[in-house]
Design a protein that fits this description.
four-stranded antiparallel beta sheet, Alpha-Beta Plaits, alpha+beta
Length: 97
């Protein structure tokens, strides 16, 4: 079993309130969950209108599948209108041999 988490810092362009931000972030989280079956949560910048950090967690039976899932998740975020990725980092969970 292989597991990894990706932390993604986002800029939400055109968002003018926390209510708007919640709508954009909820829509993004639902899209990633439904299309990729990954765990997603907002993990930082909850009080800022145009900033957001999400965590994406995935588990796969093989390492190359896990990498493919996380790359696909990053590309799906990049394709969302009004959302810009500022930074991202991936952490792999070490598994016993």
């Amino acid at each position: 079993m292989y597991a990894a988490a990706m932390r993604v810092e986002l800029l939400l362009r055109g968002v003018g309130s926390l209510k708007e931000k919640r709508h954009v972030v909820s829509s993004l989280i639902a899209h990633l969950d439904e299309s990729l079956r990954v765990g997603v949560s907002e993990v930082d910048h909850q009080d800022k209108w145009q900033r957001c950090t999400i965590g994406v967690a995935a588990v796969a039976p093989q390492a190359h599948q896990l990498d493919r899932i996380l790359v696909t998740a990053r590309k799906a975020i990049e394709r969302r209108p009004g959302i810009e990725i500022l930074d991202y980092a991936i952490s792999h969970l070490e598994t016993p041999d």
